[in-house]
Design brief:
Largest sheet of chain A: 7 strands, mixed
Helix content of chain B: 55-70%
Order of helices and strands of chain B: HHHHHHH
Number of strands of chain A: 7
CATH architecture of chain A: 3-Layer(aba) Sandwich
CATH class of the largest domain in chain B: Mainly Alpha
CATH superfamily of the largest domain in chain B: Cytochrome C biogenesis protein
CATH topology of chain A: Glutaredoxin
Strand content of chain B: under 5%
Number of strands of chain B: 0
Oligomer: heterodimer
Largest sheet of chain B: none
Radius of gyration of chain B: 28 Å
Distance between the termini of chain A: 59 Å
Number of domains of chain A: 1
Number of helices of chain B: 7
CATH architecture of the largest domain in chain B: Orthogonal Bundle
């Protein structure tokens, strides 16, 4: 009987630690989930005459990948993005964040370009509007232009299968 | 001894480093500067999570300081600036998150813990004083030993 209270306190502590320690503290929940994609308008990386805006991200499921040549995680995920682009499941848009056009173009020429179009955001203004705080970040946007999911850190095929595909499939279900 | 003097002289340079963080210079009026200082001290740098935007040297913190400065100069109110930040980075950017359904436990925890702590202290002390007052047959050896010693 006298052990009930300490045991209960212990159980509560274990519960808190179990949840608390299994979370990644660097992952800040995005306030955009379930909200319309933030408004932005940037020049296209390869063709400065063209513009990229949130309007491009609606009408079908799309992915917006935030990347930069200074970002180690972006180098890690590039191969996965190339494979996803080759599978041609959904269009992948890029947001080139706080970078330099020359270097970014060289990077794409050397490693391949998985992006339908890339917005060039040298001062990070559009990134700020998207709540970007650590590239790489990958957003999933539904056909209505609503942000559905955000992945922080390098994209992998595993994460794509586990987190992105089920959500994309359910969007297709909604339309049909 | 010499090393100590050199060390002291070098440590005199430390304040210079702290000046370097804000390169844009002070805001035009002391009132704006005070609001700027208060706001950037209220905002958490999302990248380096245990630093405020005022303290951090990260690019993101620089962006947020710059944006705060621009909005202040454009005449935005403090709540408008904080709302701009939470719209983009969530309640997490605030060192003092608002009291809401999700944060009730966070805000109530200190009071709850104080209540639980004082309730258990009260029960333990009352239990002890009763045990001390009337030593009974059949108590566990540790307790009876304790009371014996005091009597």
């Amino acid at each position: 009987m006298r052990y009930i209270i300490p045991a209960a306190v212990f159980a509560v502590l274990v519960g808190f630690f179990w949840i608390g320690l299994s979370k990644d503290p660097s992952e800040v929940p995005s306030p955009f989930i379930g909200k319309p994609a933030p408004v932005f308008q940037l020049t296209e990386l390869r063709d400065p005459e063209k513009l990229v805006s949130q309007a491009d991200l609606s009408g079908r499921p799309t992915v917006l990948n935030v990347w930069a040549t200074w970002c180690v995680g972006c180098r890690q995920e590039h191969e996965a993005l190339m494979q996803l682009a080759a599978m041609d499941i959904v269009p992948i848009y890029g947001l080139n964040y706080r970078d330099n056009r020359e270097q970014a173009l060289q990077w794409l020429a050397r490693l391949g370009d998985p992006y339908i179009a890339t917005g060039y955001d040298p001062d990070g203004a559009a990134g700020l509007d998207w709540g970007v705080y650590g590239a790489p970040e990958t957003f999933l946007i539904d056909p209505q232009g609503t942000v559905v999911y955000k992945h922080l850190g390098p994209m992998t095929l595993r994460i794509w299968q586990d987190e992105f595909m089920p959500r994309i499939n359910s969007m297709a279900g909604d339309q049909g | 001894m010499k090393m100590r003097i050199v060390g002291l002289l070098l440590s005199a340079l430390i304040p210079l480093v702290s000046f370097a963080i804000d390169s844009d210079g002070p805001l035009p009026t002391p009132e704006l500067q005070a609001r700027y200082d208060r706001l950037t001290d209220e905002l958490r740098c999302v990248v380096c999570q245990n630093q405020t935007v005022a303290d951090s040297n990260s690019d993101l913190a620089k962006d947020l300081r710059e944006r705060t400065r621009e909005m202040l100069l454009a005449g935005a109110s403090d709540p408008e600036i904080l709302e701009f930040m939470t719209d983009r980075y969530g309640d997490f950017v605030l060192y003092r998150p608002p009291v809401a359904g999700r944060t009730v436990l966070l805000w109530a925890a200190p009071v709850l813990l104080l209540l639980i702590g004082s309730a258990s202290a009260f029960l333990v002390i009352r239990g002890r004083s009763q045990a001390g007052g009337l030593p009974e047959e059949g108590e566990d050896p540790f307790n009876s030993h304790e009371t014996d010693r005091h009597v």
